[in-house]
Design a protein that fits this description.
- The chain has five domains: about 220 residues, Rossmann fold; about 80 residues, Beta Barrel (Elongation Factor Tu (Ef-tu), domain 3); about 70 residues, Elongation Factor G (Translational Gtpase), domain 3 (Alpha-Beta Plaits), CATH 3.30.70.870; about 140 residues, Ribosomal Protein S5, domain 2 (2-Layer Sandwich), CATH 3.30.230; about 80 residues, 2-Layer Sandwich (Alpha-Beta Plaits), CATH 3.30.70.240.
- The chain is built from 16 helices and 34 strands.
- A hairpin with a 4-residue loop joins strand 19 and strand 20.
- It starts with a strand and ends in a 13-residue tail after the last strand.
């Protein structure tokens, strides 16, 4: 049993340097590595060392005061934020590193919101306090004023709590407050309450230090030791998959956080969709090296092979079927360009689909009508990394077309979708209710179908088919989102139903419903923070209005004016360069994805004919006199067996 600690930060805040100091203090490495000289223990990938940034989340166990811990160093660059977010669900405690020179930045805000959303106990490490321009007090003030955080300073040199810290903790717990007033809140009592209060985020421990020199690392380790951890080691097996990798020696490898019970090699486990998968090996990972440990227990991280159907973000065992709605999504898409005389599009699609197993946000797609392969992307840096990764892994030289806005589609109201698949010796029928699920909910699934009508195994299979592909809308063939799909009825045949039959029925039912629904085009919006001299405030507000954005009342921040709000990505994409130009470098902007909103952009979706999209047909297949025949979507309901 152990506790998993995740290190999170905006890029260049000193996250990896802090990780190195932690590992050095606990004897994992002989000397702390440096990003600058390419010696960081957890940034061992060639691309990470070449670029000096963390691209992949990596882990290692360490010991402190006889207790076992696991450390995950996560990417700090926004282009790789998808992997960072998935790791949040695997940690028991988060360390949010904030530079005392740059302060709270846009991606810091995003990480904080995600940690709050998942209620993860969080310790804030204010870094670079030994640098010129350091202002840790401003960071603390920001946390209190903007985040409403109850900050408790943890001293480096002593285990005793200051009077200010004791008072802050006492105000968060009624029983401790009584002890404090009676003069009985000594360090032993405060230490006990400190861990409990931090565990439920009633307080946010704050450490001021320098990752480069190691100042503050001792205080950080003491925070870990005071946090209570509890795992059900004897309970039913349950785990969360936070990443997938492909290795030459192990093949496809799934990285798990064991939440309860234990997992042994050669053991069978329940996977998403209701199927049973067999684990080959259970290994422990440290700095890119793995060792076969045979078994992993509750609270531990491990890497396993054999789970072919498991994807990042999936739950296994007792929690199989649980879904995690992730907040960070790509807002851009790009075509994959390659030498068509050397390789065909289908082969490229297959190779990139393997990479999609590691980064699901890529959403690799192939359009047969135009013979094109495209991917979704978080930004230009991610595309640069992908280009080199594809060449290293497959020997394929690719380029990418210009990044374009990734539009999406949803529906208004509620509609029924019907799908039937019955060529000779096959059979499946599915009835699905499609309804708008709310902004940011993605695709969700529910079942109202009685189990005596359709077995639980088939219902789980239908759920798998709902989530296994990115469904296209009918306006422009853009990805479908914010739709709840409810199974209301289904039928199988005792002899003729095979594995892929329900897949066909589900796909056709969703598509048939979309053809009848009121479809809505969506575009991505982003939140922004703009800092400019007061004299430029009026210019910026006019610009935001002209871009179709929204803004809050400007705030005065020292010699600058802060303007916050949101705006379509489509109109604001190139504004950062414009801002730098007209402000002569005095203005700066921080932005992050906000949400998808309805839009009416002329020309978007033109040329797409949903009925010509044969890979996403809304029609059903029935059988008569021993032969299958196709029924158009607008007539299919009359033929449905469960509606007769």
């Amino acid at each position: 049993m152990g506790m998993t600690v995740g290190i999170f930060a905006h890029v260049d805040a000193g996250k990896t340097t802090l990780s190195e100091q932690l590992l050095y203090s606990c004897g994992v490495v002989r000397s702390p590595g440096r990003v600058d000289d390419k010696s960081a223990y957890l940034d061992y990938d060639e691309q990470e060392r070449k670029r000096g940034i963390t691209i992949f989340a990596d882990e290692t166990p360490f010991m402190y005061e006889g207790k076992k811990y696991f450390l995950i160093d996560t990417p700090g660059h926004v282009d790789f934020a998808g992997e960072m977010e998935r790791c949040i669900h695997a940690v028991d405690c988060a360390v949010l590193v904030i530079s005392s020179v740059e302060g709270v930045q846009s991606h810091t805000e995003t990480i904080w919101r995600l940690l709050c959303k998942e209620n993860v106990p969080t310790v804030v490490f204010i870094n670079k306090t030994d640098r010129i321009g350091a202002a840790p007090e401003q960071v603390i003030s920001y946390m209190k004023d903007k985040w409403g955080a109850e900050c408790v300073l943890v001293p480096e040199e002593t285990e005793s709590f200051s009077e200010e810290a004791a008072e802050a903790m006492a105000q968060c717990d009624e029983k401790l407050f009584e002890l404090y007033l009676d003069g009985h809140a000594d360090d032993a009592v405060l230490k006990k309450y400190f861990g409990a209060l931090a565990a439920r985020r009633a307080i946010i421990p704050v450490i001021q230090g320098s990752a480069l020199s190691g100042t503050g690392v001792g205080a950080l380790l003491r925070c870990f030791s005071m946090l209570p951890v509890s795992f059900d080691e004897n309970g039913e097996f349950s785990a969360y998959a936070y990443k997938v990798r492909h290795f030459k020696d192990m093949g496809r490898t799934v990285f798990l956080k064991i939440n309860s019970g234990s997992l042994k090699g050669r053991e069978e486990v329940l996977c998403p969709g209701g199927g049973v998968c067999k684990v080959n090996e259970v290994r422990s990972c440290s700095g890119g090296k793995t060792v076969n440990v045979g078994i992993a227990s509750a609270g531990e991280l491990c890497a396993v092979s054999g789970l072919k159907e498991v994807r990042p973000g999936d739950y296994l065992g007792a929690s199989a079927g649980k879904s995690v709605p992730f907040a960070l999504v790509p807002v851009m898409t790009a075509a994959v360009l390659f030498d068509r005389t050397a390789v065909n599009s289908r082969k490229v699609y297959e190779q990139l689909s393997e990479l999609q197993e590691e980064e699901p946000l890529l959403s690799v797609s192939y359009t047969a009508a135009t013979d094109t392969v495209s991917i979704n992307t978080m930004g230009e840096i991610q595309l640069e990394i992908l280009k080199e990764l594809i060449y290293d892994r497959y020997g394929l030289d690719v380029a990418f077309g210009e990044c374009e806005i990734l539009y999406k589609e949803t529906i208004a109201g509620t509609v029924m979708g019907y799908g039937h698949f019955e060529p000779l010796r096959h059979y499946a029928e599915v009835h699905l209710r499609l309804s708008h699920g709310g902004c940011g909910t993605g695709i969700t699934f529910d079942s109202k179908c009685p189990r005596d009508e359709l077995s639980e195994n088939y219902q789980r299979l239908i759920r798998t088919h709902v989530f296994e592909k990115e469904h296209k809308g009918v306006i422009g063939g853009y990805p479908l989102t914010d739709v709840n799909i409810t199974l209301t009825a289904g039928r199988a045949h005792l002899k003729h139903t095979e594995g892929g039959d329900f897949r066909q029925a589900v796909y056709r039912a969703i598509r048939q419903g979309l053809m009848k629904a009121e479809s809505v085009l969506l575009e991505p919006w982003q939140r922004f923070e703009i800092y400019v001299p007061a004299s430029l405030c009026g210019r910026v507000l006019n610009d935001i209005r002209s871009m179709g954005g929204e803004y809050n009342a400007p705030e005065t921040c020292g010699d600058e004016t802060l303007i916050t709000g949101s705006c379509p990505v489509r109109t604001m994409r190139k504004y950062p360069l414009e801002l730098i130009s007209f402000s002569k470098g005095a203005g700066r902007i921080y932005s992050n994805f906000d949400c998808y909103r309805p839009c009416d952009v002329p020309g978007v979706g033109e040329g797409y004919n949903p009925e010509s999209d044969t890979e996403n047909t809304p029609d059903s297949v029935f059988c008569s006199h021993g032969a299958g025949f196709t029924v158009k979507w607008y007539e299919a309901e009359k033929y449905m067996h469960l509606l007769r």
